[in-house]
Design a protein that fits this description.
Distance between the termini: 34 Å
Strand order of the largest sheet: 1-2
Structural class: mainly alpha
Low-confidence stretches: none
Number of domains: 1
CATH topology: Four Helix Bundle (Hemerythrin (Met), subunit A)
CATH superfamily: dinb family like domain
CATH class: Mainly Alpha
Oligomer: single chain
Radius of gyration: 16 Å
Number of helices: 7
Order of helices and strands: HHHHHHEEH
Number of strands: 2
Helix content: 55-70%
Largest sheet: 2 strands, antiparallel
CATH architecture: Up-down Bundle
Shape: globular
Strand content: under 5%
């Protein structure tokens, strides 16, 4: 199913200003097509990383490539859960998450790079199916996450921009 409407770029006030960095990385165009295309591009990039290279961290105390991929996948799950909750008009405030604690406890280094790639593929497919099922009123709904108001539309853009950010980090700092 393809949406017959465009998911509008969120305006200031629809998200915590911290996320502007991610949203600004999303090019103009059909957001669902962008998410699908960049997911494929990211998978292609990740498939070029060897098992040995996937354990690399560019500095002491920094995440390994496997931990970066695990974080990317975990964060997408969080963003889309928030989007689902708010699209369904759940009034519950949702908590933040500490990405460093999650990375430490993720067992990312004990999973193969291929397992991480498969997980990312599954999560991205789920993300696309979820967003394709939303209507314009769903994307306009909002809620509170991490003590800040955010719209479903903003969460969709944050999902895409967060991926772009971490792909850039993988290229620039990890030499992928």
């Amino acid at each position: 199913m393809t949406t017959t409407f465009s998911i509008q770029r969120p305006a200031a006030g629809e998200f915590n200003p911290y996320y502007q960095t991610y949203i600004s990385l999303v090019p103009d165009g059909d957001l669902l097509e962008i998410l699908q295309r960049q997911g494929g591009e990211t998978v292609s990039l990740l498939r070029g990383i060897s098992e040995e290279k996937s354990t690399y961290a560019y500095a002491p105390g920094k995440w390994t490539i496997r931990e970066v991929i695990g974080h990317l996948t975990d964060a997408e799950r969080v963003f889309t859960y928030r989007a689902l909750s708010f699209a369904r008009a759940d009034p519950s405030e949702l908590p933040s998450f500490d990405e460093n604690v999650w990375a430490e406890t993720s067992n990312a280094t004990h999973r193969s790079i291929e397992d991480h790639i498969d997980d990312f593929i599954a999560v991205r497919a789920s993300t696309l199916a979820l967003f394709r099922g939303f209507t314009p009123p769903d994307f306009a709904r909002s809620g509170i996450a991490s003590s800040n108001k955010v719209t479903v539309r903003a969460l969709a853009y944050i999902t895409a921009g967060h991926e772009r950010h971490h792909v850039r980090v993988l290229r620039e700092r990890y030499g992928v």
